[in-house]
Amino acid sequence: MVHELFFVIIKGGNVYMKKMTNWEELQWRGLVKDVAGDDIADKINGEPITFYWGTDPTADSLHLGHYSSLVTAMRLMKMGHHPILLCGGATGRIGDPRPTAEREIISIETLNKNIEGIRNQIDTLFGGKAKLVNNYDWFKGYEFLDFLRDVGKYINVNYMLSKDIIDRRLETGITYAEFSYMLIQGYDFLHMYRDMNCIMQVEGSDQWGNITTGIDLIRKIEGKEAYAFTMPLILDSTGKKFGKSEGNALWLDKTKTSSYELYQYLLNTEDSMVEHYLKVFTFLTPEEIMDVVEQHNKEPHLRIGQKKLAECIITDIHGKEDYDKAVSISNALFGGDLTGLTADEILIGMKMVPSINISGEIKLIDLLVDNGICTSRREAREMLAANAISINNERYTDENAVIDKSIAIDGKVLVIRKGKKKQSIVSSE
Q: Can you give the C-alpha Rg of the chain in angstroms?
């Protein structure tokens, strides 16, 4: 849906409406940090241009941390510009320098598998409208001496040492391969400028040093100006990268991170971050965002903002059906009514719940005590007498009740609840 954005300007007691430009919208959404090119606003606001965003194939799926960049690329595409999405088959063989230590080398077979997975995701997210490229295609035939002559001679070592990521690694040590990474990424920009008329790069702010190297090469070799802007890294309220959960990425591939898991993560977003994330991650208009924020602030306990954030992100990534299913699973599990859920859906929703395996028949009291659900037979009898033990929503009071797969959902899963909070999964397979 095409929408127009406006600033309200109060001057001399009069109220004026000023249409927000494309560049102003990016700034309003908090998507601009570093900028290269004095007239970049004119480029963003003007006729269609070609731009690129890139990533190395370190896994066979992108994760939620990448998604803010992808949304920005989609936003630029909706503004009429042409996206190129680069998957680094060449740069991935080396690895972008990390702040503390060298990355592990990934096998060629794994890299190729990862590239294919990322290609499929990008193609789906962009509806086949983004040009997909692999920088190995133009590096595979490039002789080392030719690269040094054509590219290396234009970049001063002192310039490279001044880059923040390199400077931070000098004390602990950095390999020549890592040190050369910015030359390779810089050449990517030069190559695409020459062959694809790509005049702008868009990346996270941690890539600024590599970006400016490409811009310098274009200026020195081609005598032309190129453009770039970086986006601030998206952090949560604790300062950790958005999309990380206990050190594990939240993958865009739903076979790695289910829609339900993604829903629960987004539902637990801190109130203080809701407005910012709605601006960054969704295509809601400013009016819609402000309306959601206003409703949320009136009744924060209802998590209106978090629910809208989850709806937008999951629907855009996985589709409306998957979002609806995630909500359904969440409501069923937290409401205590498992009716209509399959065993697989329960296992997805209760991934972190303690799991117990049984084979054959077992008395209920033995199941409760032997697996630590109750600390003793005495406690088990007290909980049963208090009607505080349920299996698949059915209350049990008889300690001698026989439990087996005949009462399991889909013949393989039982959900045991002790009181209101403690839950366990029993697998009868």
A: 27
